[in-house]
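FAQ
Q: What does a multi-component entry look like?
A: The components come first, one per line:
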Amino acid sequence: AQSVSQHNHHVILSEAASLELGCNYSYGGTVNLFWYVQYPGQHLQLLLKYFSGDPLVKGIKGFEAEFIKSKFSFNLRKPSVQWSDTAEYFCAVNARGYQKVTFGTGTKLQVIP
Amino acid sequence: DAGVIQSPRHEVTEMGQEVTLRCKPISGHNSLFWYRQTMMRGLELLIYFNNNVPIDDSGMPEDRFSAKMPNASFSTLKIQPSEPRDSAVYFCASSFARGPEETQYFGPGTRLLVL
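Then the predicted structure of the entire assembly, as tokens:
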């Protein structure tokens, strides 16, 4: 079974700072990878996804993520965060061909104006 | 297009009462997932359906929990009897399973408080 690790549980940044949230997974086969965002009191929304092809994936709101297969990583980045990016971010993975998605424990991002 | 619809959005009940949570998936989607989110355990998959058939219910905590999907546009998650430790946010998600590439879309959730 696959697992997902998000090492940063809580990140505090000032506006305009650059963001990188780590995500590592453990699974030996081919995977689909996702980042979801959950704003306070709201549901999970898809930020971006990787299925195949270009390992650098661009999502909504200026976010991007890079799949590095050799490192089993799918880190989320944003060059300049805004106060409105304050939310919890979840990395998720599923083995291709299987529907069950495993979510990481989430990283709470707080952006200070 | 309407997203995943869940009702009620908030539910407060007393221990021992029956609770029914409802979900309407995105039209055209053929898979439906029920998750529970708590501070302690994060996001847990409870059960999922394909074409209205339960595929994996290994995440259902115990016999007090049951889920049904009588048709492609409706699912329920029932807790009977409810206990305080069932307090959580319950999310429903749906997807269109058509091969190895599939994305789940989440509903707004039901915030359940059992007193």
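Q: Is there any commentary attached?
A: Sometimes. For this entry: The longest strand of chain A covers residues 87-95.
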